[in-house]
Amino acid sequence: MDREDLLRAVEMFAKNWLAHDGCWFLAAEERFDMQTAIELDAGSWKRFAAVEARRIMTTFSIPADGGLEALERALSLRLYAIINSQRTEWSDDRKRLRFFMDVCRVQEARRRKGRISVARASAS
């Protein structure tokens, strides 16, 4: 594949990964209830976040003791970052880093389908 095809493929993979997460959440919500689905989802994301972070840090040689600069770089390399609008802001003294998820595809889809869940946004 050429560069353009590779970039399109990565975006498609990210969308497919997120669609799978959404399908899993909906199945849990339908089988149990919203609260149980949120609890299961939070546990799943906690595990996945650790795996994703280790892989990002290893693949891109991000040091574990790299501080907020390393965190900012790692956040930009999450699969989620490819398909959601996100940003970071530094405090004037560069001692604090704020992370913003400007657009969450999961919440946008839930709103379109009438399945709004504020709690879900914190788990994503």
In one word, what is the shape? globular
Kindly state the mean pLDDT as a whole number? 90
Largest sheet: 2 strands, antiparallel
Share in helix = 55-70%
SSE topology string? HHHHEEHH
Euclidean distance between termini CA atoms: 31 Å
> Counting H and I runs of at least 4 residues, what is the number of helices?
6
E-strand count: 2
How much beta, percentage-wise? Answer: 5-15%
Query: What is the structural class?
Result: mainly alpha
Read across the widest sheet, the strand sequence of neighbours is 1-2
Q: What does the radius of gyration come to?
A: 16 Å
Write a concise synopsis of the structure shown:
By secondary structure, the protein is mainly alpha-helical. Helices cover 68% and strands 10% of the residues.
General description of the model:
It contains 6 helices and 2 strands. Strands 1-2 form a two-stranded antiparallel sheet. Strand 1 and strand 2 form a beta hairpin. The two termini are 31 Å apart. The chain is globular. It is mostly helical and 124 residues long. Helix 1 (3-31) runs antiparallel to helix 2.
